[in-house]
Specification:
five-stranded mixed sheet, 5 strands, alpha+beta
Length: 124
């Protein structure tokens, strides 16, 4: 369900490190604007935040006349594999969001990567 908020986004930004989860949409938009120097009012941008315990994430997205703020909290001691550098924002892909929501790291070294093939580059 959470991936519906990020599926058609042109840019997905992950706020590395822990974010104060008492902040709501206005506070998170201020972080995006002032700390990361990005525009939170662009419909195609999605911003992901994680709490200190790494068991909850928030997704912030602007929707033409207001912000959508979605929250996911894990149960039973599970944790997200979240990058720890607090001063950094990182652009990630939709596939990396999927890995993150499955409890995996966003950098999968053994993942199969797409290969572009055409008739000219094959030996047939």
């Amino acid at each position: 369900m959470m991936d519906l908020f990020v599926k058609d986004a042109r840019h997905i930004y992950l706020a590395c490190g822990a974010t104060d989860f008492r902040k709501q949409s206005a506070g998170l938009a201020a972080i995006v604007n002032m700390q990361f120097e990005l525009d939170p009012f662009i419909n195609e941008y999605v911003f992901l935040f994680c709490n200190r315990r790494r068991n909850a994430i928030k997704v912030l997205r602007y929707d033409s006349n207001g912000f959508i703020l979605a929250n996911k909290k894990l149960l039973d001691g599970m944790k997200f594999q979240w990058p720890k550098d607090p001063s950094e924002v990182k652009e990630i892909s939709y596939q990396q969001v999927q890995w993150l929501l499955q409890g995996l790291e966003i950098e999968q070294k053994r993942a199969l990567h797409p290969v572009k093939m055409d008739a000219k580059s094959t030996c047939f």
